[in-house]
């Protein structure tokens, strides 16, 4: 049910936006995309993808499943392309974790490395977003202290729960807690890992924010970057919610809402989110090339085995 609920939620949000603002709002936004904005988005995406791949490499090394940075960059591009073209927004990451785990001989660690890498990135994004939203003027500023307090309470609750749950014994829960503790200690909080993870995550958040500002300008928004920055941070947080269809849904809904609250108009918010979606899709296209090359490599590796089997059958 949860598997189907996530994309259906994205479809429902898009349907409401179409009913309220019309299909023309989507089409007009797509027409605003030009070559200059596309080139800028591709350049920013290159930097953010390299940082994401570096963050993944740091976490994976701590978990004992090393991978070279060029391989990590190519795999991250491929996962981004799959995330932006498949429902849910996380299937590319699952694919990335499984393939890396198979290459390293431990699928479980490969998947955990991806999960912890994404978790670390989102944790830093939340901290950066809340910190800036508390400082910058925005229509949402009055509710931010409550959000910050709830976030701190949630973190403390998880820490307390981790200390209360059993770590010793042969039970599944105890083994899981030991695994989580070991992963955190060696994969995220190790002295040689966490500074790079934080730095890479901050650069990624900055890159995504710049892309959103580019999308806003392309869509015709004339407000100053200082006024747009808090709105961008809120929309970026909504994008991390895995209840979308190829990235579409919560992003457009939250953008229309927050732009409306800020007095810029829900239509401009929707247009900005649509342009951002187009820019993100084009920026992920190198991942399609990586996916094709990977499929050809696997097909080529399988061909000699098939030929040898056929010759063996013929001789038999």
Topology overview:
Elements: H1 2-21, H2 23-31, H3 35-62, H4 69-85, H5 91-104, H6 107-135, H7 144-164, H8 172-188, H9 194-218, H10 225-239, H11 250-261, H12 266-283, H13 285-315
Keywords:
single chain; 316 residues; mainly alpha; 0% strand
Written description of the protein model:
The chain is mainly alpha-helical and 316 residues long. It has one domain. 81% of the residues lie in helices and 0% in strands. It has helices at residues 2-21, 23-31, 35-62, 69-85, 91-104, 107-135, 144-164, 172-188, 194-218, 225-239, 250-261, 266-283, 285-315. Helix 4 (69-85) runs antiparallel to helix 5 and helix 4 (69-85) crosses helix 13. The longest helix has 31 residues, at 285-315. The protein is globular. The chain starts with a helix and ends with a helix.
The biggest sheet amounts to: none
Instruction: Sketch the topology as an H/E string, one letter per element.
Output: HHHHHHHHHHHHH
Q: What's the mean pLDDT score?
A: 87
Quaternary state reads single chain
Terminal-residue CA separation: 51 Å
Number of strands: 0
Query: How would you describe the shape?
Result: globular
How many helices?
13
Q: What is the share of helical residues?
A: over 70%
Q: Roughly what fraction of the amino acids lie in strands?
A: under 5%
Low-confidence stretches: 305-316
Give the tally of structural domains.
Answer: 1
What is the radius of gyration computed over CA atoms, rounded to a whole number of angstroms? 22 Å
Structural class of the helices, strands and pairings? mainly alpha
């Amino acid at each position: 049910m949860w598997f189907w609920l996530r994309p259906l939620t994205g479809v429902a949000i898009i349907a409401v936006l179409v009913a309220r603002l019309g299909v023309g709002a989507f089409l007009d936004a797509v027409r605003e995309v030009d070559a200059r904005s596309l080139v800028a988005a591709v350049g920013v995406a290159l930097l953010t993808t390299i940082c994401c791949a570096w963050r993944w490499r740091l976490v994976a090394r701590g978990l004992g499943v090393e991978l070279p940075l060029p391989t990590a960059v190519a795999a991250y591009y491929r996962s981004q392309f799959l995330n932006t073209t498949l429902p849910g927004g996380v299937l590319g990451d699952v694919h990335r974790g499984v393939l890396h785990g198979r290459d390293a001989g431990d699928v479980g660690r490969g998947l955990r490395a991806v999960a912890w890498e994404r978790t670390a990135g989102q944790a830093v994004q939340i901290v950066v977003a809340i910190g800036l939203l508390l400082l910058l003027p925005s229509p949402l500023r009055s509710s931010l202290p409550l959000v910050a307090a709830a976030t701190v309470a949630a973190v403390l609750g998880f820490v307390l729960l981790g200390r209360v749950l059993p770590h010793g014994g042969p039970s599944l829960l105890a083994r899981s807690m030991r695994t989580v503790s070991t992963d955190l200690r060696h994969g995220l909080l190790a002295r040689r890992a966490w500074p790079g993870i934080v730095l890479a995550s901050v650069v990624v958040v900055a890159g995504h924010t710049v892309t959103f500002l580019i999308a806003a300008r392309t869509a015709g928004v004339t407000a100053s970057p200082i006024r747009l920055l808090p709105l961008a941070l809120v929309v970026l947080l909504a994008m991390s919610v895995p209840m979308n269809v190829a990235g579409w849904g919560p992003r457009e809904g939250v953008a229309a809402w927050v732009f409306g609250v800020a007095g810029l108009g829900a239509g401009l918010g929707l247009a900005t989110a649509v342009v951002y979606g187009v820019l993100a899709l084009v920026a992920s296209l190198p991942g399609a090339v990586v996916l094709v090359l990977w499929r050809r490599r696997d097909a080529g590796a399988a061909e000699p085995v098939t030929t040898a089997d056929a010759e063996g059958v013929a001789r038999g």
